[in-house]
Specification:
With 255 residues, the protein is an alpha+beta fold. The protein is 35% helix and 22% strand. The protein has two domains: 4-197, tt1808, chain A (Alpha-Beta Complex); 203-247, no CATH class. 29% of the residues are buried.
Length: 255
């Protein structure tokens, strides 16, 4: 890691942008909820569309550079990479050579990281552009660091340009087959069909509901199987009256 020398101060200054650390990227609890929602939404939309790309969050990714040419390892809040993680069981840093240059990165601004996240001339934005990252979404959930809640950028000719939203307020990504919107609290992900992916807490509630429905269906199937076995036994015994009673049919008047 290269340091910058300040002649005026006569000391070595920390490099810019500074290294990401686990402490610097964690942020508040709600900050993490927003990251989780974007990551999980992308994963659900990708699975629904049969995407070949994958999504990770706050995993060390090496291979970037600072403007001074020094190596720069980052922990993007969320990033979409074209090749699968070769070491999902390991906590060691991944490299751009292994997973590919991200197709998209998302940074959720916080007090400890917003300066480097927003700096397109010498901060993270510069490093992302220099590596060839396709798109960059900056999210300010508090409205404290930007005029807008979402700043969407696309890389064109090696420079960031504004990524315009549709009249309906979505940022559409043909490359990923998804679109994004902001609901006032979360950056939401829509799949290729335009369906809104659920938030993590909503997905958990849906799973619980589906599990309860499945248990009810299994109980009904067991009851039907028991009734069928009883009918077979009564048929074998030639007990027509008992079969009719079991099925709730009126007795045969000719019997």
């Amino acid at each position: 890691m290269r340091q910058v020398w300040s002649e005026a101060a006569g000391v070595a200054m920390a490099p810019w942008p500074p290294d990401d650390t686990e402490e610097s990227v964690v942020g508040s609890e709600f900050h993490q909820h927003v990251i989780d929602a974007a990551r999980d939404g992308l994963r659900m939309a990708g699975q629904a569309g049969g995407a070949e790309w994958s999504t990770l969050s706050q995993v060390a990714l090496a291979g970037f550079q600072r403007p001074d040419g020094s190596a720069y390892t980052m922990l993007p809040d969320v990033f979409v990479h074209p090749r699968p993680n070769p070491r999902p069981e390991s906590g060691t840093p991944l490299t751009l050579a292994e997973v590919g240059v991200p197709l998209l990165t998302i940074e959720v601004l916080s007090e400890t990281t917003y300066r480097q996240d927003l700096d397109l001339e010498g901060g993270k934005g510069w490093s992302y552009a220099a590596a060839g990252v396709g798109a960059y979404l900056l999210v300010d959930i508090t409205g404290r660091y930007m005029e807008e809640h979402v700043r969407a950028l696309r890389l064109v000719g090696g420079r960031w340009t504004r990524w315009a939203a549709t009249p309906g307020g979505r940022w559409e990504s043909p490359e990923l087959g998804v679109s994004f919107s902001f609901d006032g609290l979360y950056l939401r992900v829509h799949d290729a069909a335009g369906r809104l992916t659920p938030l993590p807490q909503q997905a958990h509630a849906l799973l619980l509901e589906q599990a309860a429905t499945l248990r009810e269906q299994e109980a009904a199937l067991r009851e039907q199987e028991a009734t069928l076995q009883r009918l077979r036994a009564l048929a074998a015994a030639g007990d027509l009256a008992a079969m009719q009673a079991l099925l709730g049919l009126p007795p045969d008047p000719l019997a």
